[in-house]
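I am still getting used to backbone structure tokens and would like to learn alongside you. Would you supply a protein for us yourself, any chain you care to pick? Start from the sequence, derive the backbone structure tokens from it, and show both lines together. Go ahead whenever you are ready, and we will take it from there.
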Amino acid sequence: MDFKFVYVNGHVEVLDNKGRFLFSADTETEARYEIMQHYVERSA
């Protein structure tokens, strides 16, 4: 799945490849960490 990072009012919104909102984070690094955790948990 592809993700898009959009900066809005000082935080990052993460969207899926169809532009649907998934979650928000304080930074892009935090958002990438959350994505990695999500995939690791689902693949375990």
Q: What stands out?
A: The two ends are 18 Å apart (CA to CA). Helices lie at 28-43.
